[in-house]
Design a protein that fits this description.
By secondary structure, the protein is mainly beta. The protein has four helices and 46 strands. The protein has one domain (about 1-240, about 280-330, about 370-415, about 465-510, about 575-905): Maltoporin, Chain A (Beta Barrel), CATH 2.40.170. It has a 28-stranded antiparallel beta sheet that branches. The radius of gyration is 29 Å and the shape is globular.
């Protein structure tokens, strides 16, 4: 069944794409001849484009006002003039929305306190195959907004209430991205955009370009639209990285080195004072060269007023070469022997200073590590081929859609690690953490770190490639009947079949045979190519200068190793082989049907419907405990009712009520028989095939007052009763004989309730100025998760993951005949990330100021400038121990970004 449906869909789309392309080529000559005439006639065609901030706000407000569901919208000011250079950044202006910016650019969207994995993104109503370029990113169902050029988007709608005719999956909300169609535009429309981006941290200037051409014939029955974009970006991120969980240590010189190395050390009675300390502190530098190329093609044919077809092709590819360097001091780590601690201080349960000296007689132990990971050739790609057919009959209409989408990721990973050990008296460092809020390590007592000889050895090397693929094939039909059953004026029925598969395959070859501290590929002096400095001007670590390893020399030394054999040399490398424990495949067959009634009466309108979904799953992977393949099949179905009601109190005031049930399927990796391990940091993640979908009963009650064409105020109360939510927890485990200190796993929580209120206002003055603001308060409540205590299963209360109590966005703008300016501010309060072995991990509050200005040089040329992260904010974590002790965690600094550019429209 799966193979036949996939082949049928791809054959149909291929034939449609070929025929459409030939038609476009055949008509292109006529297009060139007609272009000048049609440009002259363009003033006679109804103007449907949204021009300017005020009209964009008005169009977005109209979508919200006249929708039967709870919807917020963003509409492009004009072709090539989406509000931001990243669609996720624009979504951050929507009430209740917060975004993640781990690499300085919007990636995932949190809606009403529910993290990106609990929301759904659709393009023209359909799912998008997605992938990740980062080898440490586990596969999710969440669309990566880094892949999308905003020039290709006409509008975005955020559905916050359930509706029977929209795919299930968005517990917080469903984001629907809509691309442009050629019959909606003037024939001969040309739009070009050229930008230069400067990053103050990378100190590099990168170009970007986008272009759109739209044509239609004189009869307006056939049109073709082609859009292209290319963006380059040099990424530099500096981080003070703390490795968790935090441990308790003591300053007793007579500590017994034979204590179980697999558990945190607890000082015996009478030992010195204890305090919380991370096992490692890293000076991390991430550098990346991104090149994103996108193509969007729409071929539209409407031979009659009743029949319309649209063939859509979209492809976006990101080349993502990157290097990650991390110089790690290890003041204490439970899985190795203790370091030689000479002196330290503890304040309020936190280690605030610690001098760590080389020359520990207890035996070899990791003391200082230097990781350099090279990911040349890493990339990700998303592709969509979609065919829509619409027929309008007498009293009915039919919509059909068939297509396929694929996301592919390639993560290359050449890992190298130098080690210095605790027996070397030259290897000394000092840890400090005043007040638990400024973690730092100083290497002033080890001046060799910028130009080492034999203080560090290249003791760990592996080369791996991770391939992921996310594919969905779908076919859908919707029928609308005009009826007259009292207030019910329309009945809508539909059915949809989807076949989705997620697959990950990992290949690896790793240096083997060397005993720790005795054999290596050589001393650091043999691989020294100079030095580099990480300023850490905005993090607590302070400026650090280290030696620069020679990538080519390390690569050559690794591949010069002989192949491993039973009688071969002690230091060798095996042939590349599949990493069974990290490879998996998940297949889902999803069938859904729905029925919905739209009603319209005196002062009242809305819809009521029900959606039934049946899901069959097959999961295959590797049982790493028994070293054998494993697979499992499952099935579940869900009945999802929904109702949306709007009552007009007056012509400009309305009440809105919505209720419904939603589900969200766990992320692919979370469902897998697989582990993604990082042995060098004794960390990793593991899937859980026993996970069940998250479910939520949702309720909304809102008031909206439309003051003028572009001014309004609104307030909405929402409640989400959530069950079986997926959360992550961290514990220790042994995988394939390797002890992993911090293994993150997934489980289903029991129940959580989120409720809150959204407040929103926007006002446009007559003098060209305007303001807008929205605030969302979410009562975090308590979520219950199962936990075994003394052999009994009990429920533990935690905060629902990813939820900020306060989210606030504000905008002020001025729009004149020639000059436009806009200032944006976004804020989210701290949010719970997950359970750690010794406590909890929280994301600290985040805020950002952005500004944009533009100048209309002529009617067809607009100059633009944009500054992101004006106040140079950083992203921080907080660790909270079981006794409530708080310390600052990892700090990420991405710097500011500045754009200048121009739009050309003809």
């Amino acid at each position: 069944m799966a193979i036949n449906l996939r082949r049928a869909i791809r054959s149909i789309n291929h034939a449609a794409l070929v025929c459409g392309s030939l038609s476009a080529l055949a008509l292109s000559g006529a297009a060139m001849a007609q272009q000048s005439d049609e440009v002259a006639e363009s003033n006679q065609i109804e103007e449907i484009q949204v021009l300017g901030i005020r009209k964009s706000l008005q169009a977005s407000m109209d979508v919200k006002r006249f929708s039967s569901s709870v919807v917020d919208a963003i509409t492009s000011e004009d072709i090539g003039k989406f509000p931001d250079k990243n669609v996720a950044e624009s979504l951050a202006r929507v009430p209740g929305v917060a975004i993640s910016r781990d690499f300085g650019e919007g990636q995932g969207v949190t809606i009403r306190g529910l993290e990106p994995a609990l929301n759904l993104t659709l393009v023209n109503g359909q799912a998008v195959g997605t992938a990740q370029w980062f080898v440490l990113s586990d596969a999710t169902r969440n669309f990566n907004y880094e892949m999308l050029s905003p020039e290709m988007v006409g509008s975005v709608e955020v559905y916050k209430s359930a509706q029977a005719d929209i795919d299930e999956g968005g517990l917080g909300g469903t984001v629907v991205l809509k691309t442009r169609k050629p019959l909606d535009l003037d024939s001969g429309t040309v739009n070009l955009s050229i930008d230069a981006q400067y990053g103050d941290l990378s100190e590099e200037t990168d170009p970007s370009f986008s272009g759109l051409y739209s044509w239609k014939n004189e009869a307006e029955t056939f049109g073709a639209l082609v859009a292209f974009s290319r963006q380059e970006r040099t990424v530099r991120r500096e981080a003070t990285e703390l490795f968790t969980p935090a441990y308790f240590t003591q300053f007793d010189r007579d500590w017994n080195a034979d204590t179980n190395p697999n558990t945190p050390f607890n000082a015996p009675a009478g030992a010195s004072e204890q305090g919380m300390i991370p096992w490692g502190v890293g000076s991390a530098l991430f550098e990346q060269e991104r090149v994103r190329t996108g193509v969007d093609v729409n071929l539209q044919w409407a031979p009659t007023e009743a029949l319309s077809t649209n063939l859509h092709y979209f492809n976006s590819e990101m080349e993502a070469d990157n290097v990650n360097s991390n110089f790690i001091g290890i003041p204490f780590r439970g899985i190795f022997a203790a370091n030689n601690v000479s002196e330290g201080t503890v304040e309020n349960g936190v280690v605030t200073s610690l001098a760590v000296d080389g020359g520990d007689p207890a035996g070899w132990a990791n003391h200082v590590a230097f990781d350099n990971i090279y990911r040349d050739g890493s990339s990700m790609e998303t592709e969509i081929v979609d065919l829509e057919v619409d027929f309008q009959g007498d009293g009915f209409s039919v919509h059909g859609q068939i297509g396929t989408t694929t996301g592919e990721g390639i993560n290359n990973d050449f890992f190298t690690e130098f080690f210095a050990h605790s027996q070397d008296p030259r290897v000394n460092f000092d840890f400090s953490n005043p007040g638990g809020q400024a973690p730092s390590i100083s290497y002033e007592r080890s001046p060799w770190v910028s130009n080492p000889t034999d203080e560090m050895a290249l003791t760990g090397v592996f080369d791996q490639q991770n391939k992921t693929e996310d594919t969905e094939d779908y076919v859908q039909i919707d029928v609308v009947l005009d009826v007259d059953f009292g207030a019910v004026n329309e009945l809508k029925f539909g059915a949809k079949m989807r076949e989705r598969s997620f697959e990950q395959t990992r290949f690896k070859s790793e240096m083997q045979g060397g005993a720790p501290g005795t054999e290596s590929l050589g001393w650091a002096s043999a691989f020294n190519a100079g030095s580099f400095t990480v300023d850490h001007s905005e993090t607590s670590l302070g400026s650090q200068t280290f030696f620069l390893p020679n990538q080519s020399a390390m690569h050559e030394a690794f591949f010069a190793l002989p192949m491993c054999s039973d009688s071969g040399p002690s230091l060798c490398r095996p042939e590349y082989a599949i990493e069974n424990a990290s490879s998996y495949k998940i297949e889902e067959d999803i069938t859904s049907i729905y029925a919905m009634a739209n009603f319209q009466g005196d002062h009242i309108r809305g819809n009521v419907g029900i959606r039934y979904v049946d899901t069959d799953t097959d999961s295959s992977g590797w049982d790493f405990n028994n070293d054998a393949p494993i697979s499992e099949s499952g099935s579940y179905d869900n009945v999802l009712p929904s109702v949306n009601v709007v009552y007009d109190l007056t012509e400009d005031m309305l009440l809105r009520f919505a209720a419904g049930k939603s589900i969200n399927r766990p992320a692919p990796f979370a469902l897998s028989y697989a582990v993604n391990l990082t042995p060098e940091t004794s960390s990793g993640t593991a899937g859980n095939p026993s996970l069940t979908p998250t479910q939520a009963n949702q309720y909304e009650l809102g008031f909206e007052w439309y003051l003028s064409e572009a001014s309004m105020v609104s307030a909405t109360y929402f409640n989400k009763d959530i069950s079986d939510f997926v959360y992550s927890t961290t514990k220790s485990a042994t995988i394939n004989g390797v002890f992993i200190n911090a293994l993150s796993t997934f489980d289903n929580g029991t129940r959580a309730e989120l409720e809150g209120i959204e407040l929103s206002a926007q006002y446009s003055f007559d003098n060209g100025f305007g303001v807008g603001a929205n605030y969302t308060y979410t009562d975090l409540g308590a979520a219950q998760v199962p936990e075994v205590v003394d052999g009994s299963l009990v429920e533990r209360e935690v905060i629902f993951p990813g939820t900020s109590e306060d989210v606030f966005n504000a905008t002020a703008y001025y729009e004149g005949e020639l000059f436009t300016a806009r200032l944006n501010y976004s804020y989210r309060s701290e949010f719970f990330k997950g359970l750690q072995e010794n406590g909890e991990l929280w994301g600290d509050e985040q805020k950002q100021w952005d500004a944009q200005v533009s100048y209309n040089l002529t009617d067809n040329i607009v100059l633009r400038a944009e500054l992101l992260n004006i106040t140079d904010e950083i992203i921080e974590d907080i660790y909270v121990a079981g006794d409530g002790t708080e310390v600052k965690g990892t700090q990420l600094y991405n710097g500011r970004r500045f754009f200048v550019g121009a739009n050309f429209k003809f």
